[in-house]
Amino acid sequence: MVELKVYGGNAAGWSGGAVVLLLREEDCRSVPEVPCRDAVKELAARKDFTGKAGTSLRVPLLSGGVRNLFLVGLGSGEDEACSAEAVRNALTAALREAGRHRCESALVPMEHLNVGGGRPFGPEAPDWSVVVGEASGLSGYAFDKYKERKEDDDEGAFALREVLVPGLDEAGGRRGMTYAAAQVAARDLANEPGCVINPPALADRAQVMAKELGLDCEVWDEARLKEERMGALLAVGSGSATPPRLIRLSYIPRGGKARGKVVFVGKGITFDSGGLDIKPASSMTTMKGDKSGACCVMGILRGAAEMKLDVEVHGILASAENMPSGSSFRPDDIVRARNGKTIEINNTDAEGRLVLADALCLASEMRPDAIVDIATLTGACAVALGNWRAGLFSRSDGLSEALLASARRRGERFWRLPAEDDRIAEKLKSPFADLVNSGQRYGGATFAALFLGNFVDRSIPWAHLDIAGVDFMEKAWGVYARGASAFGVRTCLDYLASL
Ligand code: BES
Ligand code: MN
Ligand code: ZN
Measured in angstroms, how far is the CA atom of residue 379 from the centroid of ligand 1? Predict the structure, then answer.
């Protein structure tokens, strides 16, 4: 991974692979004291670069010690484009470009952006060092371990080793790098195909991580799941040649003085074929990503441990492979969840809410201060919000607002959707059991949230994050790499750090 360092030398005299300059429009009209200032003045005078938001330019330099100048436009300082989110995305993209152009070292002067208190570097958003850390840590990510030739691939060879930032706040930079590393670890796992990561393999990975970080880890196999009355998780896993697992991870701060206790629950469907209600082939690709929620929870535990937070953090990963076979659960089956509620199955492809049901019962029994579940739960959420924004459902305004504030700080877009609706709730009724697992096409994401609500103690603040649609990216853009995004990891870590 890239190393992030404070640069204390004379920036104007620096030599190396890349100087990355983030410039506002006003910086192009009157160029501040930055490295390669003459080149910037010339390019700005010729209108080759004006600082407009969303623009960027690589300028190979032939004389002097700097090999490439990367210019990144931030728009007018008054614009929304100059937000921390835009800077994070633009800087990540520029560093990715620098790495792919064989630059080993990049100098990123940012002090000129403090002038006039322009956002995000002014007093309103003092954590820009965190943003630089996130961009540095995410810039080199690509899932290319199975590619023999990386050199000629657009997401391959990445040479960047160090990012040097004058005036960087080291602690902030480190925190940003930790957020990024947690997200990268989650992406690496989520990107693995179903033939590599099945539920027992996910449990093995969790145990390895727990050992590395000193976390507690407990894995429940089928026999234990039966004893523990986790009938919904067992039903979903019953069609697969690889059995389901429930994985518990715990980070307990040293000294025994935790300021709170939060349980994260992750959907860990290692492959979702739909089961007997099988998906069409075109919807089945990318369904290795249906374990993303569980991978995010592992990333959150990694980050919490690395930051040595003084909050107790628990993870529950509900993992199964949803497959059609002679032993599959079927439409019309009635299964019993851990809290005793019975569920009539009317669609085996609505499996995520089933595995989460049992896990949420367990989470409630742990009496935490908050429960947050993360799941690639419904296509309906992706239809509602698109590929760049995830759904947040909660009966608690306080928890919603805290999570949305963290999401804004970290530049992960969430939108609150209804978690309660008496008319949609009507459709949860089954003629033969307490609940059905699907039914309502309209409002499908809220229907799923309402279903989950039956397994959470009402006295515990709970939020459900539906990351279907944002969990898997077609191509690299900003902080996102092609493939798994591990969307939500940085938001949840920011939330924990803010407690
Ligand atoms: N894993 C899918 C949801 C999904 C869809 C995730 C697209 C990522 C991208 C989930 O298990 C599912 O199949 N949901 C069904 C629910 C329906 C049968 C009620 C859906 O959304 O179609
Ligand atoms: Mn499904
Ligand atoms: Zn699924």
Answer: 5
